[in-house]
């Protein structure tokens, strides 16, 4: 899963920026042990470096992948790569994006989640 130079893209819908933050929030016990976020549980992710995560909530939903990825780190490199995989227009409108850098997600998720995994591309 951890893989230098790769970025994994997840899209979905949230009610607000605060709700999106709650979805990805990793909590800790008094002993310092991590309590996985709902996002991690939904996708079976055991660990990723939170310093290499970017999330964005948009007040208006869009299905234009180029618009959704604009402003993220390495957007000029990753947008064309994800468009090659997914097409410029998604099959649904979304208002939230999660990118995990230096992370190559490679699992299939059978259940329906609030978010959907779209793919992984190389950014370096």
TrEMBL record:
<protein>
    <submittedName>
        <fullName>Immunity protein 22 of polymorphic toxin system</fullName>
    </submittedName>
</protein>
<dbReference type="Pfam" id="PF14112">
    <property type="entry name" value="DUF4284"/>
</dbReference>
<dbReference type="InterPro" id="IPR025560">
    <property type="entry name" value="Imm22"/>
</dbReference>
């Amino acid at each position: 899963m951890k893989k230098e130079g790769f970025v994994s893209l997840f899209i979905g819908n949230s009610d607000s920026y605060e709700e999106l933050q709650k979805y990805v929030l990793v909590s800790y016990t008094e002993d310092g042990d991590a309590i996985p976020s709902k996002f991690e549980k939904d996708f079976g992710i055991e660990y990723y470096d939170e310093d290499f995560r970017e999330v964005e909530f948009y007040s208006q939903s869009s299905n234009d992948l180029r618009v959704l990825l604009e402003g993220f780190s390495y957007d000029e490199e990753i947008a064309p790569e994800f468009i090659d995989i997914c097409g410029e227009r998604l099959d649904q409108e979304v208002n939230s994006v999660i990118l995990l850098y230096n992370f190559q997600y490679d699992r299939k998720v059978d259940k329906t989640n609030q978010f959907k995994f779209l793919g992984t591309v190389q950014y370096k």
